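User: Need the bound-state model for nicotinamide-adenine-dinucleotide:
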Amino acid sequence: MNDEQIDELVGMVQRARRAVVFTGAGISTECGIPDFRSPGGFWTRYKPIAYQEFLASEDTRLEAWRRFLMIRETIGTAEPGPGHRAVAELVDRGHVACVITQNIDGLHQAAGIPAERIIEIHGNGTYAKCLGCGLRHEISWVADEIARTGRPPACTSCGGIVKSATISFGQAMPEQEMADARAATLDADLFIAVGSSLQVFPAAGLPVLASHNRTPLVILNREETGLDGLARLVLHAESGPVLQAVVARLAGG
Ligand code: NAD
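Assistant: Bound-state model below.
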């Protein structure tokens, strides 16, 4: 970890009052949840099932649910890591106004950040929804239904297709969340992207928007990203230790 870079980041955070922290799967790898693109990650072994494929075939829906329930076993038992706790502390200290997350694991909420300060632009994997009438269904109910019938579940109210409340490739982004995320980005006085390859659009358009809006952009990621050239500060490092060091220095430690 480069001390000068941490000092620079501490200075930027100290001056910020409306910072946005934008997180990707990398902030949760310390919690045992594999990211999307790192070698050996769950997702590298399976090609993602696109939304249209999910809609088109009952067999594909069953396979999608089978994979989802496997991932759920890890996500369901994961605890917030050092990165989540540090971001929660920065919110608490009044430097960070809002967390925009691509993650579906609910770990920012579990770290104690109030729900109204978190924008989940790729949905939430802790529950399921009917694509027809929007009725919420619990994941445990889905698992029981699949075990009972051997088929993907149908909505108990309208018989529609039930899907995890996450956004799949090819699925429309949630309008309200994207509008909120854009507004928070335009209002930000600092934008810090953490643990994201910044390859998934439109999500990765948010750091681009911040940069075009002349908001200082910081990218903290283990490896290079395609947007490093836009950033005021780039740290190629583990996110948890860096964010913890920032919090410790702000506290005078
Ligand atoms: P990604 O896998 O494309 O990128 C993650 C990046 O984080 C990689 O560049 C990797 O090098 C870096 N990284 C991994 N561990 C790190 C660490 N400890 N410190 C610093 N950097 C680290 O993930 P993405 O950009 O979030 O896009 C993948 C999509 O898949 C997202 O939209 C998300 O919805 C979904 N996803 C979510 C979860 C989750 O909820 N935890 C997990 C996997 C994928």
